[in-house]
Each structure stands twice: as C-alpha cells, then as structure tokens.
Amino acid sequence: MAEAHQAVAFQFTVTPDGIDLQLSREVLKHIYLSGVTSWKKRAIRFKNGVLTGVYPASPSSWLIVVIAIMSTMYARIDPSMGMIDRIKTSLPVSEFMTVQTQTVLSAILFATGLWLSFIFLLRYILKALLSYHGWIFESHGKMSFSTKVWLSLVKLLSGRRPLLYSFQASLPHLPVPSIDDTINRYLESVRPLLDDEQYKQMESVANDFKKDPAPKLQKHLKLKSWWATNYVSDWWEEYIYLRGRDPIMVNSNFYTMDLLYVIPTHRQASRAANVVHAMLQYRRKLERGELTPLRALGIVPMCSFQYERMFNTTRIPGIETDFVQHLKDRKHLVVYHRGRFFKVWLYYGGRHLLPSELELQFQRILDDKSEPQPGEIKLPSLTAGNRVPWARARLKYFNEGVNRASLEAIETAAFFLTLDDETHGYDPENIRSLDLYAKSLLHGKCYDRWFDKSFTLIVYKNGKIGVNTEHSWADSPIIGHMWEYVLATDCFHLGYTAEGHCKGDINKSLAPPTRLQWDIPKACQVIIEGSYMIAKGIADDVDFHGCLFNEFGKSLIKKCRTSPDAFIQLALQLAHYRDKGEFCLTYESSMTRMFREGRTETVRSCTCESTAFVRTMEDESTTTEQRLALFKKAADKHQNMYRLAMTGAGIDRHLFCLYIVSKVMDIDSPFLKQVLHTVPLQQVADDGYGVSYIIVGEDLITFHISSKFSSPETDSFRFGQNIRQAMLDIRALFNPKEKKM
C-alpha cells in the first residue's frame, strides 16, 4: 500500500516503483519571495549599519578624502608627511602589484585612516559638546549667547538625516555625582519630613557614612563608570526588576490607553488587524534603524538603546533571577481568546500580511467555537503570580513535548495579542468607565494577558484597544513613541471601509491560525490556580480612579509663566496634605536619556519650599500675594531639581549604586539601609497613592490615580477630587476672580 507524505512545498508518494515527487509551484513561489525579502532586509540593515557606524560622516565623504589625497599626489604634494611612502614599503611586492598600484593602494589606505581619524575626532568633539548642560538651566524663552553658539556647533556636527542609532557612539556617559553633593541633597529632601531631633540623628548617620565607607564605595563606582557604558542601568534592570520575586502584574507592568474619544471602528477583528499591521510597519522601521531619533530642542539627541528590545522579547522566569530573551526576525504572534491560544503567521509570500488578511485570520479565531483544553484557560496567570512557582513549573512541566513547543511559540512571538471578550472604553455618561478600562488594561482577569511578553496588545469587543507592558526592558516613553505611531497610522493612513472593515481584498487561501496544544497535568493546574488566586488578590485590592481635568490645561499654565510639571506637582502636594493632613516622600520619575543607555532618575517633589507653600494655602490669614510668591519659589525649586536629575545629578540612583557596591563588598551601612528602605519599588503604594498624569493637548490633563482598598488611609476617588480642587485653587492665585468652589 502506498504511503503519502506531505511537506510544505511538495508532495511525494512512496510506491514500489520509487518516489513520485510533485512540487507545488505556488508554495515554491512563496519560498522564493521569502528568501528575496530576507536578503533585501539584510542588505538594508547592512547599509544602515554602515551609515550609523561612520556617523556623523558619510560613506561619500570617504570618497572625497580619497580623491583629495590622490589629487595632491598627482600635484607632487605629500600631505601625509612621508606616511604614504612608509605604507608602500610595507606592502608585498609581486608581479600582480606594480609600483603604481602600490602607490595608489598606499594613498587609499592613508586616506581611509585619515577619514576614520576624522570620524573619531568629530565624535569626540560632539560628545564633549553634549556633555554641556548649561542650556537646560536657563530660563524659558531666554538663551545666552554661549548657548546659541553651542547649539550651532551641535547642529553643525550632527550631520543630516540621522538614523535611530546614529548618535549612540557620541552620547556622553552618565557622570557619578560627588558624595558631598548627593548627601547634601538627600538631607535637604528629608528635612521637611523630620522634626529637629530626627533630622539631627539622620544628619549624624549621613556624616558618619560620608567619612567611611562612602569614599571606598565611591572609588569602585567611579571605576565602573569608566568601564561600563552606564554605571546605573544594568544594575537597575537586574536588581530592581529581574531579581524581584513578587508578581510583576500591577507591581511592575504598566498600561497605555487608546484615544479617549475616538473609536475608528467597532469591529474587533478589523481594529486588531490595522493595529497589528501598523506595529509590523513600525517594527520594520525599528529593525532597519530608520526611525528618527528623539532630540530635545530638535537638536540634542536622546539615547535610543531601549528601543532595541521592543519586539520579539520575553522575560523568562528563574529561581533567583529572571532574564530578558530578545530574538530577531520573529514571523508570528500568539493570540489569546476565550481561554485558547492561536499561532498566527505574519508573513505571506515574503511580505507582511495586509490588514484585510489579518482581519480574516482574527475573525477566524473569534468564530472558532472549540473549548479550552484542561488547564489552558488560566495558564497565563503563571506570569501574573510569584516568580519562583512559575520558574519551577516552567522547568518541570513545560520542558518537553507539546507544552514546550507551545510555550516556545509564545515566548518567541513578535508580541502577544488578547482578543478580549469584554467591552471597555471611556463613556462620559458613566463615571466609572475610565476606572474599569484602566483596571482591565492593568491586570485584566489575571489570566488573559501574558505579562512576561515585552507587551501585550489588548483589543476589546467594541474596538477599543490598549497595551500592557513589561517594565524591565524599557520605560513608558519608549512604548509611548510606538503607540503614537500606531494610532496615527491606524486612523489616518490605513483607515477603514464604510462598514468598518479593513481596506483591501480578502485572501481566503491563507492557512487558518494554528491552535496551540497543551498537556497540562493536574499538579500543574494546582500551581496555575495558586498563581491565579495570588494575582486576583492583588487585582481586587487595586483602587483606581481616572480623573479628566478639563477646566484648563497646558496653554493656560504657560500663560502663568510656570512649568506645567511644577504646577501639577505642587497641586499634588496640596491635594495630599488635604487628604491625609501630612507630608510624605514623593517620587517623580525623570529621564536620563541624554546619556548613553540612560533610563530614569528620581525627583523628590516634597521640598521645604513646597511644604511652606502648602501650609500658606491652608492658612487663611495669608494674602494671595504671599501665596503666589511662595508658589513661584517652590515651582522654581522643583524645576531646578528636575533639571539636576536629567543631567545626572540626582540622588536616588547614586545612592542605589553605592548600596549595591556595599553589598558586593560585604560592607554594612546603616545610612544606605535606611535610605533604600524608604524608596518605593512598586507602582501602587501600600498606604499611599500612585499618580500618573498626561498633559493632552492644550486644555486637558488626565490623572490616573491608584491606591489599595486594604489601606484605611486612602481613597482614590477622594484624592482625585482633592487634586481637582487643588488645581483650581492654585490657578486662582493668578486671577482670584476665577476661583471655583
């Protein structure tokens, strides 16, 4: 009896007469096109790699230098001062290399060396220029002559049309602040929170630390700063993120919302298709390095290092520490819908699937009526619970067979997509709609997001979307850049038909998505349920409130000659004091991406100046002029601290690294223990508030407030009302007639 076997590109039948081979022309065509696309991709990456490698020069400048050197030789002028002759004497003599060939080759080698030296010189000069940060401390709208000259030089040396990674080699390293500066700033930051006796005790401990062991720790930290690209970032990623054994859901992962007032289509499969296609377009630009680097003032470059691991990345659990796995050229994604996992290929014939083709694939998943396999529906909750049980379960139950293949499909996917079976979004008529929307993005049902993926795209039944992002690989501005591109591409470039479908023809010849298979034993299902219960306890404890403040926004605050960030931070201080009747340590994140591989620094927003302003606001005997004067003083202080943090002169990252060095050297430091004990390492505080705010356009500020129901001291909705009133009260200082109660 004949036995038939089928492969991807051909069919063959084993018969007594031999093998009858039948090739599939259509499949072979797709294989050929895939190969062509792959080689094109390599060629583009190589070209862009060369352009980035020689930046701020260009390959054409090499030709100019070679022609210039050759021209001087024909004019019998030796610009090399004898070096070309020395190179010529070192070249081998053979019948294939004449004296003239040796001379030309020597000139080319000298010109190439001169060109490379010129590149290194330009980079050194640019790095020295970018190490100057005086411009950031100048008053808004006022620029000194020296800063104008500096900006002109930076612009001149920055070249034209830089690629995403063009400036990486020219960015300065993050400087290590002096011990004296950090200690003084730390003591200044805690002064408004301590009484005289407590402050005196803290001052004594700090001074003891300054004498010993601080100098010893500082020497080792400076040594690291000379050797490593960034003295903070690798330790921050390892010790703050990857070594944490608590759940990353809620505590670490963060979310990004859709446009509040716009839903371009209510068809779930259509919205998912357009958004996924836009993400693939962004990934292609990212992999080729074709995105424009972010530059302050349109001139000063920011580090682009964090973009590298946006796609094809997964956090892999370990017993003692996790690690980040980053791959290249992943051609599939995994979709979760109603407790089932599906693998969807993203390429067809060497190209990305079109939006209409992706819509077909996602609609097939939505229409699939199959039931989840045992243990499958809550499997993602392993990524939501404690890390050690997940790491042990992965080693024991997902290391072979179908479980290993299916888990590998998830962990090697470009990203993870959840086709959610709920409806969410902002509804002006439902005051809780934004709260429920945010909580769904933050934790969902605790088993319908793969929290270990670099990000999970969530598409709801009504077409609303959002993203849940794992925090270790990057900070929120990075995913925000991608999200802005995706939303703009989805709404303004790809678009939808009048019926809400994706534009383009439907290719029904596409193979349907593949269902991932699992064989999960009872013992593993018990572990899954345990992780789910832990995650559910965390999620149920999150008290979230979304506050849309539309009474005024950025434009009006700027008319008051105040930084919008400082205005909002002081409003938060006033709101917190009214909420709890006391001040507390407040941490605002600031970026340090003006340095190579820089991530974040902390700004301690509760200062002596801010507390003085708040107390004055609550003292009815003070005048508006007194309050306004103290407000401006506190705002100026906050802006200065923010600028110090951005320029590498912050407090917390330096102290954190000193603490790591002390632990490695087995040196006990009461001061560092006390400092690190007060630093929050999670997004939702046990007895305080986490507040994220976004300035949207000119007249809207959104506040995302989180706390815990288990804390009797907090109430997110109440705090939101306090923030609204604090914003209005501060605004009234600039025009008392506009005060609203």
UniProtKB/TrEMBL annotation:
Domain Carnitine O-palmitoyltransferase N-terminal positions: 1-47
Gene Ontology CC: one annotated term: mitochondrial outer membrane
Keywords: Acyltransferase, Fatty acid metabolism, Lipid metabolism, Membrane, Mitochondrion, Mitochondrion outer membrane, Transferase, Transmembrane, Transmembrane helix, Transport
Active site location: 471
InterPro entries: Carn_acyl_trans, CAT-like_dom_sf, Cho/carn_acyl_trans, Cho/carn_acyl_trans_2, CPT_N
A single GO molecular function term of this UniProt record: carnitine O-palmitoyltransferase activity
SUPFAM superfamilies named in the record: CoA-dependent acyltransferases
Membrane topology label: Multi-pass membrane protein
Localization, UniProt: Mitochondrion outer membrane
Enzyme Commission number(s) from the entry: 2.3.1.21
Residue stretches making up the Choline/carnitine acyltransferase domain: 174-725
Transmembrane annotation, as ranges: 50-75, 104-126
Known catalytic reactions: (R)-carnitine + hexadecanoyl-CoA = O-hexadecanoyl-(R)-carnitine + CoA
Purpose of the protein: Catalyzes the transfer of the acyl group of long-chain fatty acid-CoA conjugates onto carnitine, an essential step for the mitochondrial uptake of long-chain fatty acids and their subsequent beta-oxidation in the mitochondrion.
Family in the record: Belongs to the carnitine/choline acetyltransferase family.
Protein name as catalogued: Carnitine O-palmitoyltransferase 1, muscle isoform
Organism: Cyprinus carpio
